[in-house]
Fold this sequence. Notes:
The chain is of the alpha+beta class. 23% of the residues lie in helices and 20% in strands. It has 10 helices and 15 strands. Strand 3 and strand 4 (180-192) form a beta hairpin.
Amino acid sequence: MEAFVSRKRRKMSPPAPIESYAQRPPDYVSKVEVEVEVEDESTDLKLATLASLYSDVDQATLLDLLITADGSVDTVCQTLAYPEHLTSPRKRSTAAIGHQTSLAAFRRLDQPPALTSSRPKPLTRKGQTLHLYTPEDIASHTPCSIIHNFLPAREAEELLGELLEEAHTFEKQTFKLFDNVVESPHSACFYVDSLEEQIRQKTEYIYNGTYLTDVRQILPHMRAVSLKIQPAVNAEIQERIKHHYPNGKKLKHQSPNEWIPNAAFVNCYNGGKNSVGYHTDQLTYLGPHAIIGSLSLGVAREFRVRKILPPADSSSSSSDEKNKDSPPNNNKENKKKPPPTTSRGDAQGQIAIHLPHNSLLVMHAEMQEGWKHSIHPAQAIDPHPVSGNKRINVTYRHYRQSFHPRYTPRCKCDVPTVLRCVQRKRENRGRYMWMCYAGNAPGKEG
């Protein structure tokens, strides 16, 4: 797996010439099964054996097939015996940073269902990044699903043009981080679906301990697109429930009602340096197990996710996974803490989902409670013909009426509380609490 992620190719002696596997007789597989007895050997030996048998197949493809087959040389030989059942893998990048394109590309179409695991093994490893591209891989290994080319090309460009006109008036958000007031690297604006809701958002809803001053009504193209977003996201939700949730039912505390996009945050990332660090979205007005539909327009960027891992015991934690409202805990006596060079948040690695123009990513109900997400800085980007270096991201949300501010508890300091899910303490993980936010609001103390 190490070589697979880093794409470091081994230097090997040229294998002896052998006829193309497409020309081998039907009984060739049984001969190979008799000759190959390296199932318990190292990956290097398995690759060398396969390379000598299949000189016309590149080593990277053989390694992909070996990983897909859980290290079974027999299975790889059987797969290569029927080349007509293999789909062509994506052309591999020659860049210095390697990536995984798709394991599903090498699955045999005639493979019996019993050979397909319903619970895929985690593919990430500590300190490494796994890159996923296909909808099948993304749905299998992350709490997300993706639809490429979601809108007709012309409609996507019209929406992009509409939002680019607005983007130059967006503001950067400020928040409190370890007693310091910091500014977000990207700009954003909040949109709602009616004038009445616009007034309520400015006078009733509290964000970061204060009221929003810039709340706008949804734009014409945004409104038209939201009518397409709603059925698409609800269809993805049903697929998620059917194939990934216990007993094919919604998660506990998840909204029993249909998902309706009645608000949207629009983010603008101007250039590769504009990014946002790992975080979870606020649940205060969305409720537990919130679902978000995220439409990407313009420049393609890298969306990274990683699991939230509780510490080995309640006294240990890492500053990387601390919430922004708490100082780091330097407990040097915790023997189960990961080495200083690797944070607990990176203990299982991270997954990068590539979001091209006109792609709809659905963050499902298990996302905010169990995972964190970010937009990774890019050293280089490919300019978009309409937006140049900018990426516009529209995150459609369902504000639940039962979580209106009138139902939100207030702290004794008279500041509305925020809804949080316990993520660090193992014994209480998954429970919810209302927490005072005054200490995290600029200019206020809790």
